[in-house]
Amino acid sequence: MPAGSSSSRVIVHVDLDCFYAQVEMISNPELKGKPLGVQQKYLVVTCNYEARELGVKKLMNVRDAKEKCPQLVLVNGEDLTRYRETSYKVTELLEEFSPVVERLGFDENFVDLTEMVEKRLQRLPSDDVAALTVSGHVYNNQSINLHDVLHIRLLVGSQIAAEMREAMYNQLGLTGCAGVASNKLLAKLVSGIFKPNQQTVLLPESSQDLIHSLKHVKEMPGIGYKTAKRLEALGISSVHDLQTVSSKILEKELGIPIAQRIQKLSFGEDNSPVTPSGPPQSFSEEDSLKKCSSEVEAKSKIQELLASLLNRVCQDGRKPHTIRLIIRRYSSEKHCSRESRQCSIPSHIIQKLGTGNYDVMTPMVDILMKLFRSMVNVKMPFHLTLLSVCFCNLKSLNTTKKGTIDYYLTPSLSTTSCSGKHSFKMKDIHMEDF
DNA sequence: TGGGGTTAT
DNA sequence: ATAACCC
Q: Which of A83, A86, A8 is nearest to A40 (CA)?
């Protein structure tokens, strides 16, 4: 690698083991050692390894799961609060290693380790390079060449990955897998090679083996259900098919941007950066229903969803400027498509958010019911199978800077009036803010 | 398939 | 507003 022009990166993908089940076992240690499933409606959405050994699979019907495994213990996982909170603790822990952390769902994170690796190598006496060792598995059992700078960097990446997993276990009691490679695609694919609670590093010479170990293009992250179907229509099913198909044909069928992106993926190439996720862009709560067919039922569900959301938005501190209502209509076969209507939240309501005292429920429910009636003709029979409310377009209240007198004099900025318990606690004053 | 999320069009 | 992707 030419000095100073490091185009090669070191990326880690961290993937928690059966995350919801782990959180449940921490909440209730009596569940440890027993086959455990986490249930949402009639599905077992995830389960621990004891349950997997007895034949339970992710997203299995509760009946099938109980049939396969009568001793299966089930806990309800429809309330995501503890999962979400634990998930952000993991992200925050990883951000302590390097601030560039991208979340993928609640249980996966990417971290760009390139800078950290460079720093460790810079303060490593050159004689000590010979004593460097890998942490965890090496994909394909490939041998490490300590004279190859790419190998050295990935190996240091594997050591950092091991430290991250140690910290997750020691500080949060969570286990997980990690994959270290030169980009996000490869890091993600390699993290799943040894499971659970293990890690694997991919050296560049083995990247073709890794991507060809996929049996179908649908297994490639970034190629979803729709794209896989369109590829199949072109007779493309293996990674090799996708590598060798004419790019002109692919571009004509999928459009230039998707065609070029997925064909690069098929070679194991992925230049997408690790994008720091930061705080969430939206908050939503949803509930699937067997049947909602009256406006009164809908209103009651919407009130439930909204009440939870208001708590969350209050905790966050930022203010949503847009509210959205999402529905799913009953339909015999059609792939469950959703419809939504959104509007901006009137500024006088935004102001009341988080102050706790004023009733913000009533005007918000009124808005949501107007959105509801703009989608559903309530004078005609209807049958909905899902209701969801989403707050988005989140803004920090204003751009008031720390260290200005305004920051400490604006009640909503310098105190947390939301949680009650901390109602009048002043924000800590840090001299370095001035 | 649940109960979430993101970005692109 | 929808459609695609991710878990």
A: A83
